[in-house]
């Protein structure tokens, strides 16, 4: 019989053990070794089965709890763990020692968060990055509030059919069985967030809280009895459903998320956020809710109008894009969005046309019939970034149409290269080795805060210790592979007689390569299968064999990705190679924490430049695993032959015919095989005088000492604070109601009058270093005089710049220097033209050129490019449009 209702009965802990509940419900245990060891000692068998303190405590028999309550040594360990957590939560950390006035709080929105396997609310890199961001913010003391959705089915669990086809399973998650508490009003009732939907419907959501160290994570859940059936299912699955379902999710995340933050701050006294950070475009509607808030009349005066409120919202918003291709962005039909805003729906005080304009693709190649969430995110944020240096460049080029007339390098999208939370991803054995050298406190600080000086001690670790560590980790991985292989084959229907080979599958002494990630086509899961005979020869080499462990999930709707998984599985099922290559189903955090440390080489072969960052190789590197990757994402930025290998790439990216694609993949696969055959495998098996692979160990040491400080999320979060959060907070504080009105009026005036702005004439005198008036010698100075028509604008509304630098064969300026020119005394001439003048130094040799331009200028603008307005000389002006000196 099926139960008509399901709920969780929680255990009653003996009084001496009550603090265990507090430890279990703060997710710091997931990255704090001593706390995990304490829970393991409660019941080692059940801990191995669950890895989750909440489920563990629910399953431990009462008699075992009574025994622990009477155990003095256990109570002392428990007290020490509680004291350590209290000190962690309340003591000053890096952020509290910062000078000036950093943001009082930052709200961080993401559609998914990968904090721990015990809270399965992630699908891949975006969610893991978001979880690592929260954990590192906690370690650094950054007052972050995380905001997301609570999906009742999470993403999905993956298994394989007998013939290797991916199958999806969606187990129901009970919030009462998760490390969560419900946000409640002062009278004890659950806090409810409400959104209006078309047709008079209402979407209600409760707010669950997870404690990620010092950081609260608020998760909205629409499975509320008062909702209709469709509304209850809004938070059913991560990235599930059709367009309207996704739109409802993103409205709840953005608009409902802001309301949840307001409720949380009201109920707890947490400082209100000064900065709102949206991790990808999914949460972009948060900006509209904040515009709506600011438009509401206040007790001390009227609210702001749309344009005025928009200035305030932009000043305090940071937008991070993670996609390098337009196809990776959520886009909705404009009519669908229009139905959900305005009278009778959400944000009735805001004109629907203004909402739609924020997401319109007003650039060449854009579709005016679609509403683009990333475009809206960029228009609602004054500060934006990509997630690696290369991805920042790709993003500037991809979104350059929003800033017409500007070179891509001037598009106001910067980059902060992702990092990974080292305490989560570094194996305990690696941490213990470091702690023996520098002490536990210093080792933990190196992992959480970073800084090269904290990693130098690794250079003192002997070759023997490093090699023993690597072998230990490889042995552990081999055991994990065998366990998962057996479980996977049994799930596919194999009987005991078919599983005997698994006992000897993989070998702790063989070079082990890892490849694990999501399975979209651009990541090329099956590139290694291009020449199967050559791959078999690598796997079965009599002296230098390799073994490969592969994992990854294809999106449930991506049959192409599923076919790639099946192709790989069928190859790995072959009896001749299955002891050397394995596909492990149901890739997730728990598996990843075994894979990264145990592999010797981490393989990554995406289509360049479609990997925005690719953090899996960073996690591997923190454990001494060497990277073998295409120069894409973070590897393009930090690759060095001293600690890894770069796979050469063919030209073409993704814009190729089928035949060209086949040729490119064949070339790059050949390069991969050659690297493995000629450089990677020989280096691993080469032995020095002491019988150790000295050169391989040297690369491991370089990986740890030089890459380690760069790839940690502590470095990443510090960069966000210093380069984005702190400037955003200052800009937000500078925009009170009066300043917001001033800036909005300035922008309106400039936009309406910009059509009249024109550069009409450029004169260049010269004062050469030898007094001969030659302008073409190094060190000479051009005396520029530029006549500009400003129409209704004044000189203080604009900045006239001289832009100079080297020029290529197409006369494009590179390495540009920008020099502002000053208005000449005397006002406009009889024709209403203003003169701007200033010196331009010829500070470099070779092909040199300059031009002039006019940009809006105001003290409250973040940059001259912010408004996307520019005036340059007309091409018909000939040489006066820009002078070239060759």
From TrEMBL:
Cofactor(s) annotated in UniProt: pyridoxal 5'-phosphate
Pfam family, one: Phosphorylase
Entry keywords, A to Z: Allosteric enzyme, Carbohydrate metabolism, Glycosyltransferase, Pyridoxal phosphate, Transferase
Family per similarity comment: Belongs to the glycogen phosphorylase family.
NCBIfam families: more_P_ylases (TIGR02094)
Function of the protein: Phosphorylase is an important allosteric enzyme in carbohydrate metabolism. Enzymes from different sources differ in their regulatory mechanisms and in their natural substrates. However, all known phosphorylases share catalytic and structural properties.
Protein name per UniProt: glycogen phosphorylase
